[in-house]
Structure formats: C-alpha cells, structure tokens
Design a protein that fits this description.
The chain is of the alpha/beta class and about 180 residues long. Helices cover about 55% and strands about 10% of the residues.
Length: about 180
C-alpha cells in the first residue's frame, strides 16, 4: 500500500491505521489480489499503480479506507462474475481510470461509497474498463445525495455478507480449536 500510494515515511502511521479499519476478510482479499501474479494463479491486473493519488492527496470524501472498500467490492464483483475463468489468458487487465478520475472530484463520501452500484463493465481488446455512470458522476458535488433505497440495500447486503463470512470463518476456527 505504501508503494501504491507513493507514501512517504511520515504517511505510514496513517496508512497502517486505514488498513486496520478494514475487516480481516477484506485485508486478506486485497493481499491475495496484490500478490496474484498471473503465473501460478490467474490475476486481475489493474492500472492502479500509475493512477492512485498519493495517500496525502486523497480527498476527505474518499480517503484510503473508502478507496480500499470500493476496490474490494469491485474486485469481488469481477471475481464472482467469473471474468478470470472466462479469460483466455492468466491475466485480465482492468482499467479503473474512470474511478480514479472520480476520486479527484467527488465531495460526498456517500456518493463515493455508492460507486460499485453505479458502474458498468466494458470489454475492449482483452481488457475490462470499469465505467462509472454519467448520472452518478453528476452527483460528485451533491452534498445531500442519498442512494436509491433499493440500490443502497444491495450494496449494504454485500457488506453484511462479507461481515457474516468473517464471523463464520472465526467461529469455524474456534470450533476447530475446541475439537483439538
């Protein structure tokens, strides 16, 4: 993360704090994503290293924690929809340019956190472009916006599902340890 955000030494405590805010499943998911190399295991290759603003430049509406949560949700969508399995190669390029550009203009944290529900995927020459809807881009400065309840419920259900998965994994570990 420090490399990805081009952090300086003084940025490290803040990066560690933001990383710690993520649930364990989200951290493990991101670690797997960042370590998958496309050689031993199929991998998504994003254009993030060239596009992520430095940690100190991430706007208050976004911040590293929110950026990571949205990244997890987008990558989970790509994974659950089987894009890697359908790819003819071990790597699948995913362009997040539209999302990164949005991080520079969005002013409302709720608008940013709703991004996964307002994206579409466009396949171009062997790569996937994550495209944010024009309507959602227009909301970037709307400080009073709230998502359509149906859409918001879908996003919240995905987050709850991840949390339940985390609790379930912990309970399985406890059960395993008690049986020993």
């Amino acid at each position: 993360l420090a490399c990805l955000t081009r952090a300086k030494r003084e940025d490290l405590p803040a990066i560690k704090a933001e990383w710690a805010r993520l649930g364990r499943n989200d951290r493990e998911f991101l670690i797997r994503h960042f370590l998958d190399d496309g050689l031993r295991k199929p991998a998504f290759v994003t254009d993030l290293p060239a596009r992520v603003p430095p940690q100190r430049d991430l706007d208050l509406a976004v911040g590293l924690y929110r950026a990571l949560v949205v990244l997890v949700e987008l990558m989970e969508t790509l994974t659950s929809n089987g894009y890697l399995e359908r790819s003819r190669s071990q790597t699948l390029e995913v362009s997040l340019q539209d999302l990164v550009e949005f991080t520079h203009v969005v002013e409302n944290p709720r608008v940013f956190m709703a991004v996964p529900g307002h994206c579409s995927l466009a396949s171009k020459l062997g790569r996937l472009d994550v495209i944010l809807s024009a309507k959602h881009k227009e909301r970037s400065a709307d400080m009073h916006w709230s998502d359509d309840p149906t859409q918001e419920m879908r996003v919240l259900m995905r987050r709850v599902e991840r949390r339940v998965s985390l609790v379930s994994a912990e309970l399985e570990k406890l059960d395993f340890l008690q049986r020993r």
